[in-house]
Amino acid sequence: MKSDVYTEYFQKSKVFLYPLLKLKKGIAYVPIQTYVCWEHTYAVEEHQLLCEYKSKSNDKFKLFCNKYLKSHPLFVKYLDLKDDKHLFIFDLKEHKNDFDRFLKGKYSQFSFNTKLTILDFFNSSGHMLDYIHYFLSPDEVHKDYADALNVDVDLIVEIYEVCSIPNLHKETFYKDNEILNCLLTKNSIYLEK
């Protein structure tokens, strides 16, 4: 049976890394975007996941942050970005091998546990789950992708993966230096004269 193919770009960190936080799908707030680096602040080699949320800082959001994000075992830092935007940074070093595979677009080489975690996260997503399954185990759709892309199936088999590598420009958090200065000021060490 011929499957549908998915060739459009999507934010890879949101699909392949965010589920590693094991926050259940359907919780009150989800990130508007996720990133794997922050220009001039965090490099991809630091294995950080940045989750940007948009919400008013009301009691409901603060309760959510304290319950799910700030108490998360991988939580590193929170930044109020103003304009109802918030940035939460998580350390994914315990998933270093899969993070590195992610950066190379080697989704089919993720560890068994990581694949299970991702599939579990999308288990109620219907058609999206099919795409995720094929990205993680592409064998059965090589012919479909070769047909859709009008290339020889041997080329797809040689490449093996059917999902493009992350676009690091799109996976990078870019914000004004004002935010960086704010971050540095809050964490500065002042030396006495």
Structural class: alpha+beta
Hey, roughly how much beta strand do the residues contain? Answer: 15-25%
Strand order of the largest sheet: 1-3-5-4
Task: Average the pLDDT over all residues and give the rounded result.
Answer: 87
Element-level helix/strand string: HEEEHEEHHHHHEH
Biggest sheet descriptor: 4 strands, antiparallel
Q: How many beta-strand elements?
A: 6
**What best-fitting shape do the alpha-carbon axes yield?**
elongated
Low-confidence stretches: 187-193
Number of domains: 1
Rounded to the nearest angstrom, the radius of gyration is 19 Å
Portion of residues in helices? 25-40%
Distance between the termini: 75 Å
Count of DSSP-assigned helices: 8
Please describe what this structure looks like.
The protein has 193 residues and is α+β, with helices and mostly antiparallel strands. The protein has one domain. Helix content is 36%, strand content 15%. The protein contains eight helices and six strands; from the N terminus they run H-E-E-E-H-E-E-H-H-H-H-H-E-H. The strands form two sheets. A four-stranded antiparallel beta sheet has the order 1-3-5-4, with no helix packed on it. Helix 6 packs across helix 7 (153-159). The longest helix is centred in the first third of the chain and has 11 residues, at 59-69.
